[in-house]
TrEMBL record:
Record-linked SMART domains: Kelch
Protein name, as recorded: Kelch repeat and BTB domain containing 13
Keywords: Kelch repeat, Repeat
CDD domains, sorted: BACK_KBTBD13
Matching InterPro entries: Kelch-BTB_domain-containing, Kelch-typ_b-propeller, Kelch_1, SKP1/BTB/POZ_sf
Lineage top rank: taxon: Eukaryota
């Protein structure tokens, strides 16, 4: 064979890493001039291109044949930190670009955009182009709204429908306030129950460990595992120093060490393999201390404190972002975003309402819904305001909502529905453009006091009459649908 072409030292340097310069990228007949480092940071394709020593790196020009121009523009926007809204067609084109360019930021953005208007198309497109993360997230979303999307799902290829139906849907789960007691006592407040939506009844799922407390604890769900952190026992508020984790697929509880700073009445949120414990109290002193637990090592460390001391702050995750609701009685509600990548707090917006402040916050699509007490501290009627992350605008959610015994202060969103519960009633709402519309009523949760609510994907054995895998585990197999289509679509790309 021919001798390999020799390279000068300067050429070897340019193959090893991109220079701090622009690169010309042809997409079809369109030319883009883009910062090389931006491409390398956001796209594994370009990172591999520079590492491979291809001549295009030194020439500063790459040609990509067959990719949609509009999808490439979206990839560039996301790589710059933008969060563009996309039509269904734009999202499908962006899916093709994310798969070919191996653009992880774009794939994450597409996952954040999944909703009832695009989930079926994104599921199909992501399976076609092999963007497995987006495909799986779209399939999970469809599974949670299967009854509402059954007509659209019929247009999916049979292999994709079977995959969706094999997944476990999210269940509405609740537990009451429990403080550790003697093991011999049959404490019903240790019961954790799930809602059997077919029968409209609450059924037993598991029991809290004997030493676990949900009284003033931090509670969060991450990667389909329930975490109960801290809490107190007794009137002296002795802090529980352990963390308890429940895996519903194995029906097993495990424990690990708690935060470095003992705390109770704090906010716990799970995000990308970490738990964040925000604020709280210790010895009746309200704190701004914030800690993060890396769940891979179960180690806690301090991060930037919250803007000011806070206890029991409302929190919600939207579009893979963390938002915390701070209030200064009785009029001002500030919403801050915590940005883990920069370990910074940023004031997002402020809501001022006479004699009222936010008690609960939930997210739906790119909206944050803040539930607050009514005028003159009326807690029997709940008012809601909506903040849209895309437009940066507040709007009032019409009507007043019955909040008997704190039902709306425990709202949980699944798909386009919001579930609320108290001892008398479980009520599902359909989230509309300007109001929440009551959809169906079911039995209340049979416990008094504070109720913790969340979503878990449960094994089929815990959910009689539902579609699911034999053991309820989320499948990891990948449909082979349209591999030939993917290869033929991209075989003209320069590599």
């Amino acid at each position: 064979g021919a001798e390999p072409e020799s390279k000068t030292p300067d050429e070897l340097e340019c193959y090893s890493a991109p220079r701090a310069s622009n690169m010309r990228v042809w997409v079809g007949g369109s030319l883009f001039t883009v910062d090389s480092m931006l491409l390398v940071r956001s796209c594994d394709y370009f990172q591999a291109l520079f590492r491979s020593g291809m001549r295009e790196c030194c020439q500063g020009e790459v040609r990509l044949q067959g990719l949609p121009v509009r999808g490439f523009l979206t990839a560039l926007a996301v790589s710059r930190g933008e969060r563009p809204s996309l039509s269904v067609d734009e999202a499908v084109e962006a899916t093709e670009c994310a798969a070919f360019l191996q653009a992880r930021p774009l794939a994450q953005h597409l996952s954040n955009l999944i909703d009832s208007s695009n989930c079926v198309q994104l599921c199909h497109a992501a399976a076609t182009f092999g963007l497995w993360e987006v495909f799986h997230q779209a399939a999970l979303f469809i599974r949670d709204m299967y009854g509402d999307l059954v007509e659209e799902v019929c247009f999916l290829p049979s292999e994709l429908r079977e995959y969706v139906e094999s997944l476990a849907p999210s269940s509405f789960v609740a537990m009451g306030t429990h403080s550790p007691s003697m093991e011999l006592l049959q404490d019903s407040f240790r019961n954790i129950c799930y809602l059997d939506e077919d029968g409209g009844e609450w059924k037993h799922l598991t029991d809290l460990p004997i030493d676990a407390s949900t009284s003033m604890a931090g509670v969060a769900v991450l990667d389909n595992r329930l975490y109960v952190v801290g809490g107190v026992r007794g009137v002296s508020k002795q802090v529980v120093n352990s963390c308890f984790c429940y895996d519903p697929l194995s029906d097993f509880w495990s424990t690990f060490g708690g935060p470095q700073q003992p705390r109770y009445n704090f906010t716990l949120v799970g995000h990308e393999g970490r738990l964040y414990a925000i604020g709280g109290e210790f010895q009746n002193v309200v704190m701004s201390s914030t800690e993060v637990c890396d769940l891979a090592s179960h180690s806690w460390s301090s991060v930037s404190p919250s803007p000011w001391p806070v206890a029991g702050a409302a929190c919600a995750k939207a579009m893979s972002r963390i938002f915390v609701c701070f209030w200064r009685p009785m009029e001002t509600t500030d919403i801050y975003e915590y940005m883990p990548d920069w370990d910074e707090w940023r004031l997002l917006t402020t809501l001022i309402r006479p004699q009222s402040y936010g008690h609960c916050m939930v997210a739906h699509r790119d909206n944050l819904y803040v539930m607050r007490n009514g005028p003159s501290a009326d807690f029997l009627r709940c008012l809601m305001d909506c903040y849209n992350l895309t437009t940066g605008q507040w709007s009032a959610v019409h009507s007043r909502y019955v909040n008997s015994r704190g039902a709306l202060f425990t709202a949980v969103v699944r798909g386009d529905s919001a579930f609320t519960v108290n001892r008398s009633l479980t009520l599902e709402y359909t989230i509309g453009d300007d109001r929440w519309i009551p959809r169906r009523e079911m039995n209340g949760f049979p416990r008094s006091g504070t109720v913790w609510t969340f979503l878990l994907r449960l094994p089929q054995t815990s959910r009689p009459g539902t579609i699911g895998t034999a053991d309820g585990a989320l499948l990891t197999r990948r449909p082979s649908y349209s591999r030939a289509a993917r290869h033929s679509r991209h075989n003209g790309h320069s590599r």
